[in-house]
Amino acid sequence: MTNKSTPTHVAIVMDGNGRWASKRFLPRIAGHKQGVDALKRCARACEARGIKVLTVFAFSSENWQRPQEEVSGLMDLFALALGREVPQLNADGVQLRFIGERQGLSARVLKGIEQAEAATAANQQLVLNVCFNYGGRWDIVQAAARVAAQGLTMTEQNLGPMMALAHVPDPDLVIRTGGEQRISNFLLWQSAYSEFFFSDILWPDFDEAALDLAIQSYGQRERRFGKIPGQSAASTLPTGSD
Questions:
Q1: Is 222 within 8 Å of 8 (Cβ atoms)?
Q2: Domain 9-219 CATH superfamily
């Protein structure tokens, strides 16, 4: 049984950019631009609070189904943000990792991703995983394919190291903004024992106070990992329900 007040790994579904813009009679891409600022603010806040890993859902496998104009705008914004924000993130000691299927991304986006990862690879203040063209089902399938390719038995122990986020511990806390209460194909494997926090705040308005509220809620919970209250949680996590 653990009750740490500060999570090591926070994951966020950054929802509400489009609705934020619509409420202000602005194009949806304006909300996504504000969302980039919110992400920078959140990353700084996580560092200040001793959080070691931040994983965000930036673009899902299903987002390709959105109107072409919005998808094109998101791709342009992503490429611009890489060029503009990486130097400061690097100076702040942030290690950038981009998680997701890279096949089908433009050469411009791929180059930006590769350069950002190379430039920040040695940083250790905060690992920022940006899930881009990512889906939890895709992650499990690609991990299973890697296990099969190596001729290994399909077990949890063999699948785990093949997952796209195997370089970090599973998220302690998963936050979803924007008032929706669903997981939307995000970290299906990794969030098996995560604590969830749902916020009505639209992502562009998510600030330090909102993050602190989520952390406070997390700190008040008893994480049992399938055990009963008062039982030691020193052993490895079981696969059953809690």
A1: no
A2: Decaprenyl diphosphate synthase-like (3.40.1180.10)
